[in-house]
Amino acid sequence: MKLWERYYTPTSIDEALTLLAQYDGAARIVAGGTDLLVEMRDGHHDPYPALVDVTTIRELCSIDATEEAVLLGAGVTHTQIVKSEVLAARATCLVESCGVVGGPQVRNVGTLGGNVAHALPAGDGTTSLVALDAEVDIIKDGKAQRVPILDMFLGPGQSLIDSRRDLLVRFHFKLVAAREGSAFKRIMRPQGVALPVLGCAVWVRLDESGENYQDARICLAPVGPVPQRASAVEQAIIGHPTNESTVEQAIEAALTAIQLRTSKYRATADYRREMIAVLLRRSLPLAANRARSGKAVPEGIGI
Q1: What does the DSSP assignment read for the chain?
Q2: pLDDT score recorded for residue 1
Q3: pLDDT value of position 231
Q4: What is the pTM of this model?
Q5: Which of 136, 138, 167 minimizes the C-alpha distance to 150?
Q6: Among 177, 55, 181, which residue's Cα sits nearest to residue 111?
Q7: CA 76 to chain centre
Q8: Domains in the chain, ordered, with CATH?
Q9: If we measure between CA atoms, which residue out of 192, 212, 234, 211 comes closest to residue 106?
Q10: 256-293: string of b/e by CB count within 10 Å (b at 16+)?
Q11: pLDDT value of residue 44
Q12: What is the reported pLDDT for 43?
């Protein structure tokens, strides 16, 4: 079965956009293809006149870090992220989330940009990008702009960008500084692929004493049609000690504020509520310990 007519490998953003414009919405951006090609093979898309492969554009496939922040190309693979020393030390939750995506073959070709462009609320990488307060550089309707990560999601599988006309270029976020730390944990259901039941990404900042949460960003997913911050959980820990009592407060806040539904592909609502407690008990103390020590070694990375 023929899935496309022509396959292009542009070497610049301008060339990729020119190709998309040339086909006037009939072509399609492809990166690792771990979602798109499976969907095409299963007949969910008519054959495309052209695919435009953006993994040959250097700007989209590089990790460029300064002392304070990082620019992460949308075509960077999960394996590249896992192997990055600066991300492992200072964006640890992202490394931990990308390290459990699929198997080694999927991580070797699958990209973080594809994870976001596909706009699925359960994306592991997306969950950590929310906790890191990432922004996204996109070219939409011919105009370059930077938007908050949460603005990229309009609904399940519905992205802000049209992959037949627009381009996701890179992610921008601050690296953790002194007294800051992050962590990612998830519960997954092996079902041919590693299907997330629930994931939790946490970023925290401690006060000068190192004993209290000064600020926090938490994302639990999937808990709705689009990724979202767990603001009630964040408020439950800010200003409170980094102890078990505060974690239990966070769990209570999460169970009160977050409405979960039963999913035949993931788990029952009751089971997922239980897993919220498990994930917060694992991730919050881990992020706090990393913030306190200034050291982080990613856990649970696939090999």
Answers
A1: ---EEEEE--SSHHHHHHHHHHHTTSSEEESS-TTHHHHHHTTSSPPEEEEEEGGG-GGGS-EEE-SSEEEEETT-BHHHHHH-HHHHHHSHHHHHHHTTSS-HHHHHH-BHHHHHHTT-TT-HHHHHHHHTT-EEEEEETTEEEEEEGGGGEEETTEESS-TTT-EEEEEEEEPP-TTEEEEEEEEEEEESEEEEEEEEEEEEEE-TTSSBEEEEEEEEESSSSS--B-HHHHHHHTTSBSSHHHHHHHHHHHHHH------TTS--HHHHHHHHHHHHHHHHHHHHHHHHHS-----S---
A2: 62
A3: 97
A4: 0.94
A5: 136
A6: 55
A7: 12
A8: 4-56 (3.30.43.10), 62-174 (3.30.465.10), 180-292 (3.30.390.50)
A9: 192
A10: eebebeebeebbeeeebbebbbebbbbbbbbbbebbbe
A11: 75
A12: 74
Return the structure tokens found at 22.
């040339």
Q: Alpha-carbon distance 98 to 125, whole Å?
A: 6
* Distances from the Cα of 193 to the Cα of 68, 101, 197, 266, 303, angstroms: 36, 9, 12, 12, 15
Q: Which two tokens stand for residue 283?
A: 């991730």
Give the tokens for residue 294.
Answer: 């200034």
Dist. CA 172–CA 107, nearest whole Å: 21
> Distance (Å, rounded) from C-alpha 110 to C-alpha 76?
8
- Low-confidence stretches of the chain (pLDDT < 50) are 192
Distance of CA 153 to CAs 7, 94, 181, 236, Å?
28, 19, 26, 26
